[in-house]
Amino acid sequence: MSTRPADGALTPQFTRPGEATITSRHVMPRQESLPETARQIVEDETMLDGNSRLNLATFVGTWMDDAAKQVYQSSFDKNMIDKDEYPQTAAIEDRCWHMLANLWNAPDAEETIGTSTIGSSEACMLGGLALKRRWQKGRRIAGADASRPNLVMSSAVQVCWEKFCNYFDVEPRFVPITIEHRVLDGHHLPELVDENTIGVVAIMGVTYTGMYEAVAEIARALDEIQASSGLDIPIHVDGASGAMIAPFLQPDLLWDFRVERVHSISTSGHKYGLVYPGLGWVVWRRREWLPEDLIFDVSYLGGTMPTFALNFSRPGAQVLLQYYMFLRLGFEGYRAVHQSAQDVARFLSAGIAKLDAFELWNDGSDIPVFAWYLRHGHTSNWNLYHLQDRLRQRGWLVPAYPMPEALTGLTVQRIVVRNGLSMDLAAELLADIETETAYLDALTSPMPTEGQRPGFHH
User: Fold this and answer.
1) How far apart are CA 360 and CA 251, in angstroms?
2) Which residues, 6 or more positions from 397, have their beta carbon under 8 angstroms from its beta carbon?
3) Facing residues of 116 across strands?
4) Is there a contact between 410 and 334 (Cβ–Cβ < 8 Å)?
5) From 116-125, 155-164, 310-319, 323-332, the region with the lowest mean pLDDT
6) Domain residue ranges of the chain, discontinuous segments joined by +
7) Which H/E stretch holds residue 413?
8) Distance between CA atoms of residues 247 and 332, nearest Å
9) DSSP class of 397
């Protein structure tokens, strides 16, 4: 009986078929390869990616502890939509959004309704759809035209809201942010809302800068509009980041279901919920704010369970990771993790503020995210895209990009502090920023600007 090893098993690794040739980029290989060969090719190519923990552009979590990785490994085959096959995973999903309803101060968490999603963008889509369907129903009952819905939001809104308006035929109405009004704060709302407005989006943690929009002030402005016009306009809070920060770091801030006009809140489990991508959540203050025609029933333990996510098959592992994190950290653990991240953000922003070249847009005192811009008149030899490129050479991804409409002439640079950026690493980053800024300041002639592009897209 032959004991000859499989073809190629004894061949030196990088001379094996597949690894000794250039892999086809667009055509599936004709023949199979050794598992080790396929794995090595994938690992070799992904070495060209950046170091995720040095990526200060993304809000998405890039670190979890070893026990979480074990939870992930034991559950990555679970399909969230298959509630009959995985009833306990479905029950855990239910527990998680009820925990969030309580965290967000729902008057009666048992009267809320919510769901997990692939990410906060899907959660926003569901929140927007609920606003649209509720508005349409009200207009039809009143015998009014329901064909021209609009949604009011700041010009600094994340692109998922532009997608929502595009995909679901809603007119977007943008309130421009300015130096005087750096976030949506109720200013300009009377000029934009009307009988066709399905709602107002308030962002807890603007993607461009990390600042909170003023939910309570927005609600007060809408109260005044209702008093004068009769229009009762709800708010959806896009809490992709801030809904998992504010309850722990700013517990007295009124932004959540304590503000009665807030109908729904969405968040990312995979951002400051501290879970690997992709996971989002959306919760409605009362069941009635989620129209019945958006809910489908699926078989569950011999009965039925409601489902209303846009996706069908999707991973259940991230839901279990969220439950693990809730159990592992609890309220005080989340508070400690986020306070540490904010301490790092405030340390970095204070250090950058000391450099003559820069002015802060904000300092990281909302979510642990802040932005800065080049001081007017400081130099004509370089810009923030040059600093972005210099830092990238050292391994750091610190994006520069233009601000939104009405401020497109202003370029900012932003740092997102996540769990995993220690104070020690932050000190290294600050030293590199100081070094590269000094290098650029020492230039005696302008740097080329051809081919410059934003390091982040919103």
Assistant:
1) 25
2) 50, 54, 55, 56, 57, 391, 455
3) 281
4) no
5) 310-319
6) 69-325, 330-441
7) strand 411-416
8) 11
9) B
Three-class SS state of 177: coil
Q: How many angstroms separate the CA atoms of 420 and 425, rounded?
A: 9
The rounded Cα 340 to chain-centroid distance in angstroms is: 20
Q: Which of 73-77, 112-116, 169-173 has the lowest mean pLDDT?
A: 73-77
Q: Taking the chain, what is the end-to-end CA distance rounded to the nearest angstrom?
A: 63
β-bridge mates for residue 171, sequence order:
150
Annotate 301-344 with three-state secondary structure: CCEEEEECCCCCCCECHHHHHHHHHHHHHHHHHHHHHHHHHHHH
Q: Is 249 in contact with 339 (CB distance < 8 Å)? A: yes
Residue 417, classed as helix, strand or coil, is coil
Q: Are 240 and 271 in contact (CB under 8 A)?
A: yes
CATH architecture, range 330-441: Alpha-Beta Complex (3.90)
What's the CATH code, domain 69-325? Answer: 3.40.640.10
In sequence order, the 6+-apart residues with CB closer than 8 A to the CB of 239 are 204, 205, 246, 255, 265, 266, 267
Integer Cα distance of 156 and 361 in angstroms:
14
Specify whether the CB–CB gap between 321 and 279 falls below 8 A. Answer: yes
State the Rg of the chain over Cα.
25
Q: Which residues contact 274 (CB under 8 A, 6 or more apart)?
A: 61, 64, 244, 325, 329, 334, 337, 419
Give every CB contact of residue 312 below 8 A, 6+ residues apart in sequence. 81
Asked if 8 and 17 touch (Cβ cutoff 8 Å), the reply is yes
- pLDDT tens-place string over residues 2-47: 444 555 567 787 777 777 778 788 888 888 888 888 888 888 888 8
| 334/329 Cα distance (integer angstroms) | 6
Element (H, E) at 100: helix 87-103
* Per-residue pLDDT, 34: 86
Name the maximum alpha-carbon separation found in the chain: 92
| Whole-angstrom distance, CA of residue 173 vs CA of residue 170 | 9
Token digits for 92? 């855990």
Q: Tokens 């980041």 correspond to what residue? A: 241
SS3 state of residue 264: strand
Cβ atoms of 204 and 184 closer than 8 Å: no
Give CA–CA dist 309/296, Å, rounded. 9
Closest CA to 130 of 226, 262, 264, 260: 264
